[in-house]
Write a structure and sequence with these properties.
Two copies of one chain form a homodimer.
Chain A (H helix, E strand, L loop, with lengths): L1 H7 L7 E6 L12 H4 L3 H8 L2 E6 L9 H8 L11 H8 L8 E12 L2 E4 L7 H14 L2 E2 L2 E7 L4 E7 L34 H17 L8 E8 L7 H5 L3 E4 L3 H9 L11 H10 L6 E6 L1 H7 L3 H19 L5 E5 L16 E6 L13 H4 L5 E4 L3 H8 L9
Parallel strand pairs in A: 1-10, 1-11, 2-13, 9-10
Antiparallel strand pairs in A: 2-12, 3-4, 3-7, 3-8, 5-6, 6-7, 11-12
Helix pairs in contact in A: 5-9, 10-12, 11-12
Chain lengths: 402, 402
């Protein structure tokens, strides 16, 4: 279907704003969901004159990670375009990835007498992680033909990018995890699963050895385990696929990284909702499409903080008039997935969607909530259909067939 | 899925009537859609005891042409069965097409000193078009092994069928348009894109030459441009696919032509709704399935004539009792796509559906309108699922699996 859409795309000067309240969908606690408990007079008024519904990120019963959650609402089938763990980890710590790179996530671990005694090196403090990762970076800058780039994460986690001098072939990261998954077992060797991955595996093997040599003074963090070898998918850019010049406005690196994978512009934005809306306003003339990512709804959901998530939704509502005053041709408010405080993690529930344009029925939903959105004209629909719907409402899709 | 359906089909003596109010779906103008503004006591009463919902012709955001719009509600996946422009054009001017034919749409154009000066020959009057097309037909009846059939359209447009003596292979019409798309450029030669298209291209080349020789006395319409080479798809008939002996009742040639492509009987019917219903009544004993096409809802929508479209819907409502009195086992009222007067062309919006049979829940929709249909038991569903639903309600589908 993405091929069909691509052939129908036409450009014009309309503007589409997509607000993603991360993890916005919820479940009732004492009868009401977070959206139902929030004070949202602006969103509710907008929902009343908008097309409402719920999108299904991947499929019934499937809980999406952040990667598939966002790819779906960006119009990429998340089952077709899977983003490897190493890539997500690298994006999450703010690394830039190119088509020359293999990314992996790494653990510091404890290695004694040929066996892994602790797969997480006793969850060393993040400060120690930073110190050791700097040591690795200072001493390992290049292995064979590839540049090696390190970036610390939290506790025992860090990310590595193996950057080759030229764009790499598809399938260059088919390498097993070296983590034996159980303590008391020997670490595995990185073994290439195909020809293209051979040099990556060779470099990984040297990386493990060189790191171990540099960590001999450490009692706990004296060895590294490599996981999630991945390269960036050869995915059509947002401009190629949908003819949209797009700006991502996100304060967290991983969401900027995801947007960058599909070629959106991703300048660093610091702050929270207020600063993001300011940024939207000051760049409104320069792009066709605006992805505005609001993180804290999800963070509160994951903490099980019902009131915190509710408050964040109410806070966003206060800024909504500043967005509508910009007069986007199409305005969408949704989430990338649900994160009910009740569950404290991502969930499989469909996600409320509001789409405002001149070409909607409206008057079917009284509020922007899970239950009111079930009454809307969009029904429950695949997330991947949201972007085509936005394009149609912006007059950016030609007729299919005669 | 069509293969699955096909294996489940069983015949019986039930009758299915599908009324297609072309482009019936609309959008609010001053708060109400065309269906909401129309006086439709009969449809509303029927909606209340019917299964209601909305069908999605091709996909979210996709605006269908008339071809894909009808194929979908006839149970053929419009993404799988694409009908070429030349075929649609030929059907639209009332030509009959066979599996021996390549159809194309043609323009009269102005050709001077090797360049196209006007791609539409100054939009010559239709009368002159008729005169010239008759001249071409009188002088060009055969080129090489193929019969050549001309049919005038409006202004500068006409259609040509290249009829070979025997059924042609798939892919026999893979030939570029000769229209250079811009004035001041040389016309293109028809170039075959594969082996099967070689003889078609050879004949097209001779056709251009012979037509030019016959048009030398014309100042404006002295050359022809060929576009949209296409052959009829090798599509299973309605009888083969669904076991239904079908009658199409349509006053416009293109809709009869579409129905004929899938093997429906398509006698000429003149007049409007009244005459169509009379025709339905007098043939009700002779078929299993009746496609009744009502055109003017769409025509008014395309003209942006909200009141005209509303009036046409109200007019149809007056005839509805004559249809229900026939006692069809399954009665469907829907459209092939939406044509909101607000937009003045086909749109991507899902289309209201009402399905009446003894085997429905009912009492969910108070009227036959876009908004009331969102409340119905059918939800928003792919157009291609409508025909299987009709078959099931007519007891014409066996159980799947044990």
């Amino acid at each position: 279907m993405q091929d069909v859409i691509r052939k129908l795309v036409q450009k014009n000067d309309t503007k589409i704003v997509m607000i993603v309240l991360d993890g916005v969908g919820g479940l009732p606690v004492q009868g009401s969901t977070e959206l139902e408990s929030a004070k949202t007079p602006n969103m509710d008024a907008l929902a009343h004159i908008s097309a409402c519904g719920l999108h299904m990120p991947v499929g019934y019963g499937i809980t999406p990670g952040s990667g598939p959650g966002h790819l779906g609402i960006f119009g990429y089938d998340p089952l077709e375009w899977q983003i490897g763990r190493g890539v997500l980890e690298a994006l999450g710590v703010g690394m830039e990835l190119r088509n020359t790179d293999v990314a992996l996530r790494c653990n510091y671990s404890t290695f004694t007498e040929g066996l892994i005694k602790d797969r997480r090196a006793g969850r060393i403090p993040t400060d120690l992680n930073r110190e050791l990762t700097k040591r690795l970076q200072d001493n390992i800058k290049q292995i064979d033909e590839a540049e090696i780039i390190f970036e610390p994460g939290l506790e025992h986690r860090f990310a590595v990018v193996i950057r080759f001098p030229e764009p790499i072939e598809k399938g260059s990261a088919l390498i097993n995890d070296t983590d034996p998954q159980k303590t008391g077992k020997a670490p595995l060797q990185p073994v290439p699963g195909n020809n293209q991955s051979e040099r990556t595996a060779r470099i990984a093997e040297k990386l493990i050895k060189q790191a171990a040599d540099l960590l001999t003074d450490q009692e706990r963090a004296n060895y590294i385990l490599l996981r999630g070898f991945a390269q960036v998918p050869d995915i059509p850019t947002f401009e190629e696929a949908f003819g949209l010049k797009a700006l991502a406005i996100a304060t967290y690196p991983m969401y900027r990284g995801l947007a960058r994978l599909i070629g959106m512009d991703t300048p660093v934005v610091n702050g929270d909702i207020k600063e993001e809306i300011e940024f939207l306003k000051s760049n409104f003339h320069d792009y066709d499409f605006f992805f505005v990512h609001i993180k804290k709804t999800d963070s509160n959901g994951e903490d099980g903080n019902f009131e915190g998530k509710t408050a964040k939704i109410s806070e966003f509502d206060g800024f909504l008039p500043e967005i509508t005053e910009l007069g986007p041709d199409v305005l969408i408010i949704t989430g990338d997935h649900s994160t009910p405080s009740l569950i404290k993690e991502h969930s499989w529930h469909p996600v409320p969607v509001l789409l405002r344009s001149p070409y909607v029925l409206g008057r079917l939903s009284e509020r922007f909530t899970e239950r009111e959105c079930t009454k809307g004209e969009l029904g429950i629909f695949p997330a991947v259909s949201l972007l085509p719907l936005a394009l149609a409402n912006a007059g950016r899709l030609k007729k299919f067939g005669a």
